[in-house]
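Researcher: Next sequence.
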Amino acid sequence: MVGRIITSDACVVEGAAWLAGADPRFGMALDQAGPLPLRLRPGGFAALFDAIIGQQVSTQSARAIWARLETAGLTCEDAVASATEEELRACGLSRQKIRYAHALAAARIDYAALPLLTDAQVIKTLTAVPGVGTWTAEIYAMFSLGRADVFAHGDLALQEAARRLLDLDARPSEKQMRLIAENWAPWRSVAARILWAYYRVSTTKEGIR
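Model: Next structure:
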């Protein structure tokens, strides 16, 4: 089964209310962070390519690179497949991300079929492509497919927010975060939204764009 799909702000509100009822600390985080963003994005090649661009760079740098790619007309599958290394490098892509960009374009993922797959199948399909790690696949599932029960366990901002909110001695590892997040099913994606929002209000850093 695919499970619950987030389609509107009402879904996020429902999930947030469930989480606050299950753990009052989420209620405290919501009081501090305010209304949660919906964060839904269009799916497809551009969304996944954009997620790859955002890996291991600042939000500002990722936006600048994406803007140059848009100006150059290099955000669609066919254009990236035929683009030279020089053209992609001129937009700010590193050698590694140029390789990932070409691999993604060559994979010809059936994006229209992804909504029909389970969360696990989506992650498996996307991570089969070089450059698409588990974090990137989880972000795509959460925000481009609207999956309500997916969590980016390896996200450092989520780990740090969990440490602060749950008053842990140390930031949890990805493995520990998976165990902790099990308590937030079936609304793990909304739990992530709360934690990202809480991270922003409790630090001066920005989580994801």
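Model: The chain is about 60% helix and 0% strand. The longest helix spans residues 188-202.
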